[in-house]
Amino acid sequence: MAISRITAVLQSKCPRCRVGKMFDGPVYGLRKQHMYEHCPHCGLKFEIEPGYFYAAMYVSYAFSVAEVVTLGLGTAMLTHSESPWLYVVVLFAAIFIFAPFNLRYSRLVLLHYLTPKVRYNPAYQDEQAGENN
Ligand SMILES: [Zn+2]
Predict the structure, then answer these.
(1) 85 alpha carbon to ligand 1 midpoint, in Å?
(2) Contact predicate 44/25, CB 8 Å
(3) Tens digits of per-residue pLDDT, 49-80?
(4) What is the three-class DSSP state of 37?
(5) Which residue, 45, 90, 93, 110, shows the most beta carbons closer than 10 Å to its own?
(6) Using CA atoms, how far apart are residues 115 and 119, in angstroms rounded to an integer?
(7) pLDDT tens, position by position, 85-113
(8) Where are the beta strands (DSSP E) in the chain?
(9) CA of 94 to the centre of ligand 1 (A)
(10) How remote is the CA of residue 100 from the centroid of ligand 1, in Å?
(11) How far, in Å, from the CA of 2 to the mean position of ligand 1?
(12) With contact defined as beta carbons under 8 Å apart, do 76 and 86 qualify?
């Protein structure tokens, strides 16, 4: 059964087969996040070109701006505070807390939505179905 692109992104799956995982382990944990070099299922090399994930910084930047603006406005509306220290503390905490999320999902969004070279190919997904039966 085909899984949707958004489900594949949320589950950190490979953009080509949507079966193999791109990352080992959960987003949040005590261990550093580990990204596989190649898809464990179809063998796609995730870093398509050397330094390819520098482009993920643009996606990560967009995530960070969205998070900071949302939390800044949320803090202002909830507390009505004019103290800059409250905003400094809240926003730095948010940047720190969202960093692992931004790392993982910026790369996933880059590969799933912004890389025309990498396309979903259901043939790779069906390979596993054959192996399991
Ligand atoms: Zn794959």
Answers:
(1) 46
(2) no
(3) 999 999 999 999 999 999 999 999 999 999 99
(4) coil
(5) 110
(6) 8
(7) 999 999 999 999 999 999 999 999 999 99
(8) 23-24, 34-35
(9) 32
(10) 22
(11) 13
(12) no
Q: Which residues pair with 34 in a beta bridge?
A: 24
Q: How much distance in Å is there from the Cα of 74 to the middle of ligand 1?
A: 39
What are the tens digits of pLDDT across the range 6-54?
Answer: 999 999 999 999 999 999 988 888 888 899 999 999 999 999 999 999 9
pTM greater than the 0.85 cutoff? yes
Name the DSSP class of 36: -
Ion ligand 1: residues, CB within 5 A, are 14, 16-17, 20, 39, 41-42, 44
The predicted structure's pLDDT at residue 133: 40
Assigned token pair, 119: 């396309």
Determine the number of helices (DSSP H) and then strands (DSSP E) in the chain.
Answer: 4, 2
Is 100:28 a contact under the CB 8 Å cutoff?
yes
